[in-house]
Amino acid sequence: MKYLITFLTSLALAGSLTGQAPEWIKNNWHPGLYEQELRFLASDELQGRNVGEPGLNVAARYIAEIFRKNGLLPLPGMHDYFQEVPFEKIIPGRTEIRFLDTVFAQGQNVLMLDGPAIEDQGIAVFINFGDSIVADEVQGKYVITLFGTEDIRSPMAAMQKGREKQKELQLFGAKGLLEIYTLQTPWSVMSNYLNRERLQLEQEAGEGTTPLAHGLIQLDNRAIASLRKSPVRPIHIQYTGVQRLKVPSFNVLAYKPGSEAEYQDEFIILSAHYDHIGVRNRAPGEPPGQDTIFNGARDNGMGVVALLSSADVLNTVSTKRSIVFAAWTAEEKGLLGSDYFVKNPPIALDKIRFNLNTDGAGYSDTTVISILGYDRVGAAQEMKQACEAFGLSVVVDPAKEQNLFDRSDNVRFAQQGIPAPTFSPGFRAFDEEIRTYYHRESDNPDSINYRYANAYWKAFTYAAYLIAQKDSNPHWSHGDKYEEAAKSLYGDRY
């Protein structure tokens, strides 16, 4: 009789195999409350939840108090719900460089990225991509290299390689690094991004030292050929240096312990980023009443409420595995909050067996949920069952040309080997409906279809439950590009 009762209880919690919605979700669902949460998070008063602005800190506190209300615990070893993510705001300086009979000015043909103020008449030496640096050749000199490496085509990868060169040259006693920009991405795109205030993780600045002067310059092929023939040249630099302002921000983290000893030391992470892009500058002559606030109701207010509603409802049932609820900061700045988490994990990464992320640009089909990585992460059956339980179908990896799987916080976990799909509101392509709201002032809470939003939130909650209840841990599909990272992370437990 005991086993029959246990079996029947499991069926009631899981719902039928034909996709029936479980009673525990129906009975504990509060649609008015969840709409209220979205309306607050995407309100004008929070000013677009930009990193470094008061509105984002208000949102962080709001999320934490909902976690507290639902009886969730701080993560092991943490005394509260906040993981501080130390950012710094970089404010570019003014630059004038005279080199090869050319005057370089900040934002025009040079982009200084880092370093202290300089006024110097010195010597520059050209070293191709900087892959054969000899300390004696660069000490006390400004080093000129090509941007990135011969094989790198991505600006992000080239920037990372540039930081590595910068650190190496600083150890060798060089005075500065100027990289000649050679990528296909237009210089104007790089200038628009780099010649303005920007945010980076404070640890990237260097461990308590003033970073070496580092910048990008434009040179034509004739000038590069000249440097190859005669690599040592005079250079004059006037540079005011960058300003660095500390900008604290927070990942908001909580968990509910698992109920079964065999599984409770394994964690499923449910995640959503809670930042957005703030407020735009008013254009010259623009009427005072024109909306300038990017409220971010779809991106990613809907995702945050998926997290909050699941915290509310999953609190009413037991799960085999422990469930972490994570609201990331600074996704819009380059997935920085989730990146900081995986590099400074409060719980060992090999105890994290799955990350179910939710993020999206909007929706254009309210009959579906779009899942990025659906058939790659070993939980397709559970995600399909959860969607169908609430009358929704699954669209697998829409807009593949956009490489969306690798563009949200889930990829930080995937890179470590942790299976990590992203739930997104329903779309099949980046169509006009998506473009109407994506990173636009029109993405406000009055424009949301709350009937669909509630179905989406329920499906996310149910998928989280089913994955936390699996008898075996999800695995990457054989041959997936992240499979080797998983084998390295989990070892013989994979």
What does this structure look like?
The chain has 494 residues and is α/β, with parallel strands linked by helices. The protein folds into two domains: 2-87 and 248-493, 3-Layer(aba) Sandwich (Aminopeptidase), CATH 3.40.630; 93-241, Glucose Oxidase, domain 1 (3-Layer(bba) Sandwich). Helix content is 32%, strand content 22%. The chain has helices spanning 2-14, 23-27, 31-41, 54-69, 135-138, 155-171, 187-194, 221-229, 297-314, 336-343, 380-388, 410-414, 432-437, 450-468, 483-490, and strands spanning 82-91, 95-99, 102-105, 110-114, 118-126, 142-146, 176-180, 198-201, 213-217, 232-239, 243-256, 267-273, 322-328, 352-358, 368-372, 393-396, 422-425. A nine-stranded mixed beta sheet has the order 8-1-11-13-12-14-17-15-16, with helices on both faces. Strand 5 (118-126), helix 5 (135-138) and strand 6 form a beta-alpha-beta unit. The two termini are 36 Å apart. Mean pLDDT is 94; it is low at 1-9.
